[in-house]
Amino acid sequence: MTTHEGVVLIIGAGPNVGASVAAKFSENGYRVALAARSLTDGLSADGNLHIKADLSQPSGVPSIFQKVKKAFGIPNVVVYNGAYRLTTPPDDPFAAPVEDFHHTLKVGLDSAYIAAQESLRGFKELPASTSKAFIYTGNALNQIAIPGTLPFGVSKVAGSLFIEHAALAYGEKGYRFYYVDERLPDGRPVGFPVSAGAHADMFWTLANEPKQTPWLVTFTKEEGRKPFVGVDFDGNTRESRMRRLSQ
């Protein structure tokens, strides 16, 4: 009889990070469930569970967890990779219609928040010895404003805040929460696409940590976890921008 190490649920599973994370966990004995708008409900040829899910409809998130529980059991690792990358002209941050702005928040914040709630509910039902982690795929926008990214950035700022609250409240209870942000070696944002394999390796490391470590995880493909402040693509920080404005 085949034994399984656990169940990982990847929400917003695309061909880049989602596929790499799925492969990493599958190779290490996990059952893998993937939820995305592009998928069709059912088991894939490789035994993964596919769930069709529209993250712009937050009310549908609990049903994702119900389907995973029915097919594989309660997920002990949940990766939230959903995002709607709405941008604006760099010199006009209020250009996006409010309806589009709300759409971004539904995908990047509302559905993520409900996913965190559902994850916690499941974590509490699992044995104390089982590793439990909720991982939010972030970027540098929670630390610095980059022109043209206001709608997308608001969800990252808010997402990092609820991750911080969750880590403080639940980390000591064995329910770990992380916001993960890949950078270049000099601290600048890695941009898009990110390094899928490096994300998979980092997520695997975080899923297996014995206790909550700092919730904000900045890392590079070359060196792994490394602390960085907010830096834009030109190497500016909030402090350097403020100094220029005050001159």
TrEMBL record:
Transmembrane segments: none
GO molecular function: oxidoreductase activity
Alphabetical keyword list: Oxidoreductase
Residues in the signal sequence: none
Sequence similarity: Belongs to the short-chain dehydrogenases/reductases (SDR) family.
Name of the featured protein: Uncharacterized protein
